[in-house]
Write a structure and sequence with these properties.
Largest sheet: 6 strands, mixed
CATH superfamily of the domain at 127-278: Isopropylmalate Dehydrogenase
CATH architecture of the domain at 127-278: 3-Layer(aba) Sandwich
CATH class of the domain at 127-278: Alpha Beta
Number of strands: 11
Number of helices: 11
Helix content: 40-55%
């Protein structure tokens, strides 16, 4: 029998991220189509906390109405006026391309609108596939947990999974995890041609052995229980430095990742924040259902990733 999870502490993802962030400078961030009170309230608090210098991009009248509804002065943050949400996404992406802003944060437009602008040829493509990573503070787990990809790549092939894994490792490094343990999830811990995700998992581990994925330790396939419970892994005779200790969970597809991340939030009481990696700049995909604390945590993630990129670039230069 496995031991039941015990919620013996309150999650505080923002506090964890702020402890890593410390004295990093605030960054200029374009907030794309922030036309509801929740979007502008979270952004305003992130600015007051010294995380970002926000620029609100979207229809001026709608933004000013959102500010008024949130009890914020209309001139509290600069506004770059656009006609509609599609134009707001295009303008924000253009600002990121020219270096006018260092990061993007989604407001009240649909994720697809922003990501279509980001992945366009004139958008924010880099040499790597973009992917989304959830950072979660799960009360029953003893470390920060990253789950990927739960928002962008629907049914990733092996090459895309390679980029998904590398993007997550890069985020872990930005969070101060020097050698993250990466569990490649499937429904079983043995390789079977009947379960394609187990074959992909084995291939990803060999790619890491050959240097095609760097900066972390991979193992897989691993079922979810074996990835996060040492007891479960021991009972199944799994000998692994990753099993039971995973920092990163790589899911087989978007549906599995989305369900897992939301289960951890709603059933396990986890705090969460999400970020897109693999683009020319980090992108926070906040949801209208996100609490203010989640929006603040997403802003902190943007700061950490931007700082890590500056440090990495400086070392390479």
């Amino acid at each position: 029998m496995h031991r039941p999870l015990t919620l013996d502490r309150k999650p505080d993802l923002l506090a964890r991220l702020m402890a890593v962030r410390k004295d990093l400078p605030r960054i200029r961030c374009a907030i794309v189509h922030p036309c509801d009170p929740g979007s502008v309230e979270g952004v305003h608090l992130a600015a007051k906390a010294g995380l970002i210098d926000p620029i609100l991009v979207g229809p001026r009248l709608k933004i000013e109405q959102a500010l008024l509804a949130a009890g914020i002065k209309a001139d509290a943050m600069p506004i770059v006026a656009t006609e509609h949400s599609h134009a707001a996404a295009a303008k924000a992406v253009a600002m990121a391309r020219t270096g006018e802003v260092a990061a993007l944060m989604k407001g009240s437009l649909h994720t697809d609108e922003l990501m279509e602008a980001a992945i366009a040829p004139e958008g924010l493509r880099s040499g790597r596939r973009m992917s989304h990573v959830f950072a979660l503070d799960v009360p029953a787990y003893d470390r920060l947990l990253l789950v990927t990809d739960a928002a962008i790549n629907i049914a990733p092939d092996l090459d895309t999974k390679r980029d998904i894994v590398q993007n997550a490792i890069d985020l872990a490094h930005a969070l101060g995890i020097a050698a993250p343990l990466v569990a490649i999830l499937s429904a079983a811990e043995t390789v079977s041609a009947r379960i394609p995700s187990t074959v992909d998992a084995a291939a990803l581990c060999k790619m890491a052995d050959r240097g095609q994925i760097a900066g972390g330790m991979l193992d897989g396939p691993l079922a979810f229980d074996n990835a996060i419970s040492i007891e479960a892994a021991t009972q199944k005779g799994i000998v692994s430095k990753v099993a039971g200790r995973a920092d990163i969970l790589v899911v087989p597809d978007l549906e599995a990742g989305n369900i897992l991340a939301k289960q951890l939030s709603y059933f396990a009481g986890a705090d969460s924040a999400g970020i897109v990696m693999g683009a020319r700049c980090p992108i926070a995909l906040t949801s209208r259902a996100d609490p203010v604390a989640s929006r603040l945590a997403s802003a902190a993630l943007l700061c950490l990733v931007s700082a890590h990129r500056r440090e990495t670039t400086a070392v390479i230069s």
